[in-house]
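User: My collaborator sent over this chain with a note saying "see what the structure looks like." That's all I know about it. Can you take a look?
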Amino acid sequence: MFVLAVLRDTLKIVPSEFTKSREDALKDEINRKYANRVLHDIGLCMIVHDLLEIDEGYVQHSEGWIWVKVKFRLIIFRPFKDEILVGRIRSASPEGMQISMGFFDDITISADQMPAGSEFNVTEAAWVWRYEGSEMFMDLGEQVRFQVLDSTFLDVNPPRPKIGDVDSIPASHPPPYSLICTIAGDGLGLLSWWVH
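Assistant: Without extra context I'll predict from the sequence alone. Here is the result:
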């Protein structure tokens, strides 16, 4: 679920950070710049793990801050294919369900990845699994165990609309990183289904 990625960057230490140690100031700047951001084909950045190399800092002419080249490792959220994770049902529709892990919400389970015998109940706005004469509702907020089928990275740079073409700008933006998952398998689905 979590991996380490090695990155290099040139970061600035502003004068208000001079009271901290150089390492602490750099870690704070790395976290400020990278935490909770998606790096294309890498994953969701969580927090700095450690600093590997720190070069000497330099001050540009007419600037008051110090620029430092640094090599560091970040903790990245990037589940591998077939990994089993646990989250909560965030929303449900006839197309499927959205799952949240608290820190990551772009997890989709499509209608064809539900257990056999599942259907969407419009009045309850929830999915129902009919199994051996029982109706098991998948209500919002319930904990669910799911399996990762695929992860998708999308370049979400805003499109450049043609001059005078207002309709070319999309109303909603797709997420830069999302997971496609399933609950159609043994041991998958609501945690309450598998309690003995």
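A starting point for your reply to your collaborator: Helices lie at 22-34.
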